[in-house]
Amino acid sequence: MFQCLVLQKVMPQKFVSVRRIAAVFAAMVAVIVTVAGCSSDDGSSGGDSSGGKTTLNVYAAASLKSTFTELAKAFEKAHSDVEVKLNFAGSSALVTQINQGADADVIATADERTMQKLGDKAVDPKIFATNTLTIVTAPGNPKRITGFASLRDSGAKTVVCAPEVPCGAATVAVEKNTGVELTPVSQEASVTAVLTKVTSGEADAGLVYVTDAKSAGDKVATVGDAAFAQVVNKYPIATVKGTKHSEQAEKFKDMVLGQTGQEILSAAGFASAGS
Fold it and tell me: Where do the domains of the chain lie, and which CATH numbers do they carry?
């Protein structure tokens, strides 16, 4: 803060008038104030006042990566003041992050059991899609896998999801229903990790969702089994309790449940919530 300088008294000197001294002194003060950038206390500043977009943090299961990436683009197009930030991981990992205080506005998991671990942090969960398992192998199915039991009998190096994540829980359910117990070479934290093990050649076969197999295209061959139809994963979506962007979060949830979301999900191979 600059304090105003007051010329209280100027003693008259010979040949120089008091008025001239005062004028010169006032001019000097004006220059100092201007150079120093003094301003009034009206609170104005030169900061950026353009304002930014609202960032909507959407946490979604790994198997939703392609569809929710497309949904986020559609939502941003319809809501130019919102930027959707996506976080994909295994459903259990996402729930753990939120329970530990992660800043999420929307959560979509690959089964109801995992969503329930959020308790009342998951606000009004709604089922928006369903999914089932299938077997993926290298192109051409070189190990001649014919179904779920042959994963055990063929000696194929098989990878599955860990039991604590939805795709792993579905695998365990199929094992119980069929009486066939697999001996996987690894258990992965997400379905995308299982798919990567197969497409990279690290494994002969893997259990993934039909949507992941479809997204892989000709990088894999697929093998079905009637037992898979008996284990259906239902995908819920919810807003997160305490979100600062409840209006935008609800709109995103509504879009997923609505026509736009259902068309995108169906094109990717998901079945509808009523299936």
Answer: 54-128+237-267 (3.40.190.10), 133-230 (3.40.190.10)
